[in-house]
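Chain A, query sequence.
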Amino acid sequence: MAKSYTEELAGWVSKRTTQRLRQDKNIVAFLAVKGDVKAALDAGYSMKTIWEHLHETKRIEYRYETFTLHVKRHIRTKPRAEHRVEQQLPQEQSKPQALAATTRPDQAQSEPRKTPPPSVGGFTFTATPKKEDLF
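Chain A, predicted structure.
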């Protein structure tokens, strides 16, 4: 007796999931070399040169585009924990002294002005035509 399509599909899916590589393998590999990448970037090497070396030495096995995304996400931008620490600091401590002196106290506490959305108008559809519009 022949298998039904759903049974055949279930067998294929189970084979495919065991053969697929883990998606987080790339990020784990990047985080393992993150310190070296940061040091090389700080030393003035280009991302392309760093990727080529890491790829040739088999320390990472993914494409350059993936590498640049990881660099942008984990090195070029601040980690989320650092953003939270800055938000918890009082406003006067996180601002430079020159900006803190020029800010008025009432200005910092006021909410941003909300403008109403622009009104939509101009066209209305009617299914019955007007005789004056037809001529």
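The radius of gyration is 29 Å. Residues 25-42 form the longest helix (18 residues).
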